[in-house]
């Protein structure tokens, strides 16, 4: 089914189209929600809530991005709200110095270790890191989503990377 | 702030595992979507109130009073200017009158009228309520987790009692005709039942 046909079905609240959309995106969205929340149960709640929003508000999808990107934005925002309810973000903001440096090295990083390390990051660091490095949002978009300045987003990202690198050394 | 070998990180990020959500999640979504289509959102259920009939008469009278015939030789621009000024004055006067009315004690005595809706128009609403009721019964028969939540269970048992009371009242109404007191009680039960049903649906 083409994306256009899928959207037409969604606009008509067609259950088969809704199911197709869910099947097509549930893994990617669940994985994103899990990494942001760090909790499978909460990620499942986020996914359900986000897809309901998608189905109920499909009329407001303007087609300025792909439907996948639109769903992703909804999932990310829903996950952020869930994390925020659990614990306020950015409680652990640490200063970053201009002279600081992060070197990922030339050797491959084990994805399993990397995921463990990402999940052990404090909420604020993990959120910015995932939004920037995994989801590919710009600092401007991240700042808007999180209600912070672009500068805060950049410094949080760098601090997150520094902490992540330290954690990977420990894991290794 | 400097970052070296960013590619190493990117390569590892591309290999992060993907996870599958619980298989039952689609069922939960589908149930919620069924309820969405069975039950209108609560705000759409709220009654419509008609403001007192004399409000429009007052507005009309005020507009007529403040809109004398335009002078025959007045320029187009002059007419517009005058109209704008009078419209602004009317708005100021109406807002002032509204503010004054709200400040007076008489504000509490404003009457609220509710439209009596033709029963035939309520039939789809009744069908939606029945569908939601069936959904709640079904979930509890299947012993779904939501039915184990104490608040949900209490509300469900209240709902069952009200449903039973409604049946008894309907029977009594059949026997004694449209007794106003019984009709009043039935309306009250229906209203309470709808409220509980909506709360249950929200909890699902």
Structure explained in plain terms:
By secondary structure, chain A is mainly α. Chain A has eight helices and one strand. Chain A folds into two domains: 84 residues, Rna Polymerase Sigma Factor, Chain: A, CATH 1.10.1740; 61 residues, Winged helix-like DNA-binding domain superfamily/Winged helix DNA-binding domain (Arc Repressor Mutant, subunit A). The longest helix of chain A has 23 residues. The radius of gyration of chain A is 18 Å and the shape is elongated. Chain B folds into two domains: 56 residues; 87 residues, no CATH class. Chain B has eight helices and three strands; from the N terminus they run βαααβααβααα. Strand 1 of chain A pairs parallel with strand 1 of chain B.
Mean pLDDT of chain A: 88
Q: Biggest β-sheet of chain A, characterized?
A: none
Biggest pleated-sheet summary of chain B: 2 strands, antiparallel
Percent in strands of chain A: under 5%
User: What pattern of helices and strands is seen along the backbone of chain B?
Assistant: EHHHEHHEHHH
Largest interface chains and counts: A-B, 43 and 30 residues
Residue-averaged pLDDT of chain B: 70
Overall CATH architecture of the largest domain in chain A = Orthogonal Bundle
Radius of gyration of chain B using CA atoms only? 30 Å
- Give the number of helices of chain A: 8
**Which percent bin holds the helix content of chain B?**
55-70%
Q: Structural class of chain A, please? A: mainly alpha
Question: What proportion strand of chain B?
Answer: under 5%
Radius of gyration of chain A: 18 Å
Q: Could you say which structural class the secondary elements and strand pairing of chain B correspond to?
A: mainly alpha
Low-confidence stretches of chain A: none
Based on CA inertia axes, which overall geometry of chain B fits? flat
| Superfamily (CATH H level) name of the largest domain in chain A | RNA polymerase sigma factor, region 2, helix turn helix motif
Helix percentage range of chain A: 55-70%
Q: CATH class of the largest domain in chain A, please?
A: Mainly Alpha
Shape of chain A: elongated
